[in-house]
Write a structure and sequence with these properties.
The chain is α+β, with helices and mostly antiparallel strands and 293 residues long. It has 2 domains: 123 residues, no CATH class; 161 residues, Cathepsin B, Chain A, CATH 3.90.70.80. A 5-stranded mixed sheet has the order 1-5-4-2-3.
């Protein structure tokens, strides 16, 4: 009987793998949203199958144990010696009761988890992140533009600018851009220091603290903001256009006449804070391979 159950489980896993392959093949090239949805669906299906099969195997073994106890009791009754197994029966009955409570507890937790997921999916429809994404998509769509996703790791501003420059056949790197910004801000202290203050106390930076701030730009994955954008525009001698959902377009370096660098600014896309992506024509939307290379 156990062999039959294990064979059934192997067949179910095989069928699931076939279904997963079909789901993956249904993803159109470059459809990141669909890819994410399929990945989540695959994880859910694999988890559900594993939990169900584990429960089936556990129930089977417990039923076998109960049947063995019943047979033992029946044999003892027939032989007139019921005291022999009374202790074993009590122990095994207690184990069976505990196992049932554990199963009920696990089932309750799974129901709570499913309800929480359902509620989160409902909340996501009206979340700040979703509303911001829809607004940006509408704004960009009117200009036949689209977002090229950039990883959120503290380097997003510099990687987004690096990506923009690559579309202009300009070769650089995130680290090179960081170093250039750091050097420019150090050499133009009067243009930037008055606008920096401690986020907690509100006290303005001292000159020494400003130097540390600039050094961190070159040596740490610290997030870049408006001041760093200004520095980037001056270093590259190019205008920078930042498109956002909840405000007007921000233009920097308008004195420069070259092709603008276009970025999108996101307040709510990641829980860790603000984020920048690269903006490109819809016809040039790329795969993630550029970011991974």
């Amino acid at each position: 009987m156990e062999d039959e159950l294990l064979q059934k489980h192997r067949q179910e896993r095989k069928e699931l793998q076939s279904k997963i392959q079909s789901l993956k093949h249904s993803i159109a090239k470059g459809d990141k949203k669909k890819k994410k949805e399929i990945t989540e669906e695959v994880a859910r299906l694999e988890l559900e199958l594993e939990e169900r099969q584990n429960l089936e195997l556990k129930n089977f073994k417990e039923n076998v144990q109960v049947n063995n106890v019943s047979n033992q009791l029946e044999n003892c009754v027939l032989s007139g010696n019921t005291n022999q197994v009374n202790g074993d029966i009590s122990i095994k009955a207690g184990k069976s009761s505990k196992a049932m409570k554990r199963r009920e507890k696990k089932a309750n937790k799974q129901r709570e988890r499913d309800e929480l997921i359902a509620q989160q999916e409902l909340d996501n429809l009206t979340s700040d992140r979703n509303l911001e994404a829809k607004a940006l998509k509408e704004i960009l769509g009117k200009r036949s533009l689209a977002i090229q996703e950039i990883p959120s790791d503290g380097n997003c501003l510099y990687v987004a600018v690096e990506h923009q420059l690559s579309k202009q056949n300009i070769t650089t790197s995130m680290q090179s851009l960081r170093c250039q910004v750091s050097e420019y801000m150090l050499s133009h202290e009067d243009d930037f220091l008055p606008f920096l203050s401690h986020p907690e106390s509100g006290e303005p930076f001292s000159q020494e603290q400003y130097k540390v701030y600039c050094k961190d730009i070159a040596t740490k994955p610290v997030w870049g903001g408006h001041l760093e954008l200004q520095a980037l525009s001056c270093v590259l001698k190019q205008p920078i256009e930042v498109i956002q959902a909840d405000g007007p377009i921000v233009n920097l370096g308008e004195q420069f006449l070259d092709q603008p660098i276009i970025l999108s600014y996101h307040k709510h896309v990641y829980g860790l804070g603000e984020h920048y992506n690269s903006v490109i024509p819809e016809s040039l939307v790329e795969e993630d391979e550029w970011i991974e290379s």
